[in-house]
From TrEMBL:
Protein name as catalogued: YybS family protein
UniProt keyword annotations, A-Z: Membrane, Transmembrane, Transmembrane helix
Source species taxonomy: Bacteria, Bacillati, Bacillota, Bacilli, Bacillales
Source organism (scientific name): Amphibacillus indicireducens
Transmembrane segments: 12-40, 60-93, 105-127, 176-196, 217-237, 243-271, 278-298
InterPro entries in the record: DUF2232 (IPR018710)
KW ATP-binding (keyword) present: no
Length: 315
């Protein structure tokens, strides 16, 4: 028991120091900040994998407290990032310790990242004392003014109605923030989990790995959820804008998942037919070039695969 306590304390110092070091790199070397953010949850996740989510949460809180005591400025600017790292790390570490399926670990990590990023936006809004929506409106106005000047010099003029229509379309991008936030969280969670797999396999002699992408399979319940979302999207929620926003973003997120399902089916098909990888790469490039049409076709293919299990029909 005493040896285990000593190991927890020793690992706490090691992983806590590693987390602070990565925070320093993220804040003071902005060029690689977006990349180092992928490594931030690793110390918390590894500690949680060894000792549980309560101990890993406590480690994150101790790191925040230590920073606030010894470097207040660093604490203020690193607090949001430390919260993102702690949440994502705790979610991934506990899922790994519970021996969840890798895709379930990925889902939990995505939730942790999404909550962390949401808190990050809220804290930026509170600390900067500025509205992100207002700032975005100013950027749109400046962009439209510059565009109007350039078109005027070229002998082209935009009417007031055209400017209003363009501004309305650009403001609609704000409605996509939840979906974009979730998709970014999915990407970050996947890469971070892959890095954690490599670290744990190296230092803890585990054999963690993602299953082959061709085995990616969404449960049928996702299809039913998507079906009801499509039905609800036909209704007019002008009096309940938040409900309409949730349905809109949920549909986009599920659409991305079905596109992944369709892509995995193509990988499965090419593997069964023993087709050259170059042909598959060319097909993916073709799909990406013709976005969003290519993604829409992948989504349809993914929906059919989930509903009818096309892989069972492929010999």
């Amino acid at each position: 028991m005493e040896k285990q306590t000593n190991n927890q304390i020793k690992d706490g110092f090691i992983f806590g120091g590693l987390l602070i070091a990565i925070l320093f790199v993220t804040l003071y070397i902005p060029v690689i900040g977006y990349i180092s953010l992928l490594f931030l949850p690793i110390p918390i996740a590894m500690y949680g994998y060894r000792y549980g989510w309560k101990k890993s949460t406590l480690l994150g809180l101790i790191v925040l407290f230590s920073i606030s005591v010894f470097a207040f400025y660093f604490f203020v600017v690193s607090l949001p990032l430390a919260i993102v790292a702690t949440l994502a790390g705790v979610f991934i570490g506990e899922a790994l310790k519970s021996q969840r399926h890798p895709y379930e670990v990925w889902g939990r990590g995505t939730i942790g990242y999404a909550i962390g990023f949401l808190l990050l936006l809220l804290m930026i809004h509170l600390l900067s004392d500025q509205s992100l929506v207002t700032e975005y409106r100013l950027i749109i106005k400046e962009s439209l003014d510059s565009t109007q000047i350039l078109l005027g010099q070229a002998g082209l003029d935009l009417s007031a109605d055209d400017l209003i229509a363009i501004e309305r379309d650009m403001m609609m991008l704000l409605d996509l923030i939840p979906a974009v936030l979730m998709i970014i969280s999915m990407i970050y969670s996947f890469v971070t989990q892959w890095l954690i797999h490599k670290a744990l396999n190296r230092f803890d002699q585990t054999k963690l790995a993602f299953p082959k992408f061709r085995s990616f399979q969404l449960p049928k319940v996702i299809l039913w959820i998507y079906f009801f979302i499509v039905i609800f999207s036909w209704f007019n929620f002008s009096g309940l804008p938040m409900v309409g926003l949730v349905i809109f973003n949920a549909g986009l997120i599920l659409g991305v998942l079905f596109s992944l399902q369709g892509l995995s089916l193509i990988v499965y098909f090419f593997g069964k037919r023993k087709q050259p990888k170059l042909l598959f790469i060319l097909l993916i490039i073709f799909i990406l070039v013709f976005l969003p049409g290519g993604m829409y076709l992948l989504r349809i293919l993914g929906i059919i695969d989930v509903g009818f299990r096309l892989r069972k029909l492929i010999k």
